[in-house]
Amino acid sequence: MREPVRVGQRASIRKTITEADVVLFGCVTGDMNPLHTDDLAARDSRFGKRIAHGMLGAGLISAVLGMQMPGPGTIYIKQTLNFRKPIFINDTVTTTVEIKSIREDKPIATLRTTITNQDDELVLEGESVVLLP
Amino acid sequence: MREPVRVGQRASIRKTITEADVVLFGCVTGDMNPLHTDDLAARDSRFGKRIAHGMLGAGLISAVLGMQMPGPGTIYIKQTLNFRKPIFINDTVTTTVEIKSIREDKPIATLRTTITNQDDELVLEGESVVLLP
Amino acid sequence: MREPVRVGQRASIRKTITEADVVLFGCVTGDMNPLHTDDLAARDSRFGKRIAHGMLGAGLISAVLGMQMPGPGTIYIKQTLNFRKPIFINDTVTTTVEIKSIREDKPIATLRTTITNQDDELVLEGESVVLLP
Amino acid sequence: MREPVRVGQRASIRKTITEADVVLFGCVTGDMNPLHTDDLAARDSRFGKRIAHGMLGAGLISAVLGMQMPGPGTIYIKQTLNFRKPIFINDTVTTTVEIKSIREDKPIATLRTTITNQDDELVLEGESVVLLP
Q: pTM value?
C-alpha cells in the first residue's frame, strides 16, 4: 500500500519540448494556430519564433500528478493556469507540483503547480485540486 | 481587417475523441496514467473504461480560442478548469467559448468555456482570460 | 545492380487504414474536415460514417512507387487521381501500380495506379509519370 | 447558410513542413523512401538533403479545399499533380486554390491548385475537380 501524501511533498518531471511534440499536440487538439505551425508568421509575431501550445504545459502538470505524486488513481477536480512566458520548441522545462493542503473531511488535496524553463524562468504556474487515490 | 469581437459572441468546434488522440496526448505529455492506457485497470476503476486525459479537453478550448474566436494572434493569459465528468474514448464533444466581458483600458477579454458530450452533459467548464489579437 | 523495369510489371501493397492513420494524416496536412474528425457529422453525411482522407490513398500510391517498383530513387513527375469511392476507417486496401509504357529517349515511365478495398471495389485510380532510378 | 463560391475566388494556407510531419506522413503511408528517411542517402541524391513526400503537398491541397474553400462538405472527384520542385524539411509553403469554372448543370467546380515555397518558387501545381457542398 502506498504511503499517504503529506503537505510540503513535491515531485517534478523534466522534459524537452520537441517540434514533434508540438506537431502532435496540434493534431490531437486541432489547434493549428500559425504561432505553432508557420515559421514565417511566428517570426513576425511578438515571440520571434514558433512556440509550443500553452496547454501542452498543462498536460505536463497532469502527467506529474497522475504518474508521480499523488500518482495513479488521482482524479482531477480543478486547475488554474497563469501563462507567464512562452515555451519555445527545444526548451527543456521542469514541471513541479507541491502539496499545499489536504482537507480533513475528504481525501482532497490542493497543490501548487509550476513550470520553469532551462533558464529558471517561470513559464506557467497555477493550482490543482485533486481527489487523492 | 478582422471585426473586433464583442460581448456575447460565441464559437465552437465539435470533434470525436479517438483512441489515437488519447495515445498521442499521452505520448506528448508523458501522462501514461493507467486510466488512459490500461484497459484492465480502467475497467476496475470508478469509470469502468478508459477515459481521455482531462487536459486534452483543455487543449480543445485553446484550439477554439486560437483558431476560431478571438482567432489567430490571441495570447493566453489565464484559464480555470473545473472537471465535471470524464470524456470517454469515442465521445464526440463540443467545445464552446463565449465572450463575457472586455476590459475598457486594455484589449483583454474574459470568456466562459464549456465542453459538452454527445448527451449534452457538461464535462468541463471554466473561464479564459486572453489578450485579443 | 537492379534489373531495369519493363512494361507490364506490377507491384502492390495491402494495408488496413486505421483510425490512428486518419488522425495522423489530419495532423500532418491540417485537414480536420468533419468527415474525418466528427463522428456525428459523418453519420449525417452521404457516407454515414467517418472516412479516410482521399489523399491518404495517394500517399499509398507514392509508397508503392518508392518502396517496391520502380523502387528507391524514383522521382515523381506527375500523378492523376480519380476518386471513385470513399475509404472507410478499418478498410483494408490494396494499392497496385503497373508499368504501361517507358519512353525510349529518357528513363521516364507511365504507370496505371489503382486502389481497391476488401470487397474488390475500385476506390481510387489514376496514372503516374515517374523518372526511373 | 454559406454563400455560394464564384469563379476567381481563392483561399490559401501557409505551413512549415517539419521533420515530424515527414516522419508521420511516412508512417501513415508506409513510404519510407530513403530520400525521406536516410540523411546519408539524401545527401548523395540529386537533392542534397532529405525532402518531404510529394504527396504531403497533395494533402495540403485537400486541406485547403476541405477546410477553407469550398469548405466542409466538399467531395473530391479528381486531382492532377505536377511535381515541379522538391519541398525540403523546414520549408514554409503556401498552398493556394482558385476556382476556374463551375458547371451550369451540376454543382461541380474546377480549381487551379498551387504550392509555392518561401522563395516564391512553384513546387507543385495541378487541377482539382470537386463536388460543391
A: 0.91
